[in-house]
Amino acid sequence: MLERDIVRKAEELGFAIDPSRVVDSLSVAEQQRVEILKVLLAGARILILDEP
C-alpha cells in the first residue's frame, strides 16, 4: 500500500521515482524529491523549502 501511495503521489507531482531504489543511489535532486514526498505523505499541509 505504501509503495502504491508513493507512486501515485510522485505521478501527481510529476516526479519519476522508483520506490525500490536505495536512497544513496539517487541523485541529490531525486533525494530532495523523496524528502518532499515523505512529508506530503505524512500529511504536511505546509512545506518551507530553503535552498542556498
From TrEMBL:
Ranges where the ABC transporter domain occurs: 11-52
GO molecular function: ATP binding; ATP hydrolysis activity
Alphabetical keyword list: ATP-binding, Nucleotide-binding
Record Pfam families: ABC_tran
PANTHER family from the UniProt entry: CARBOHYDRATE TRANSPORT ATP-BINDING PROTEIN MG119-RELATED, GUANOSINE IMPORT ATP-BINDING PROTEIN NUPO
Name of this chain's protein: ABC transporter, ATP-binding protein
Organism: Pseudomonas syringae pv. maculicola
Lineage, broadest ranks: Bacteria, Pseudomonadati, Pseudomonadota, Gammaproteobacteria, Pseudomonadales
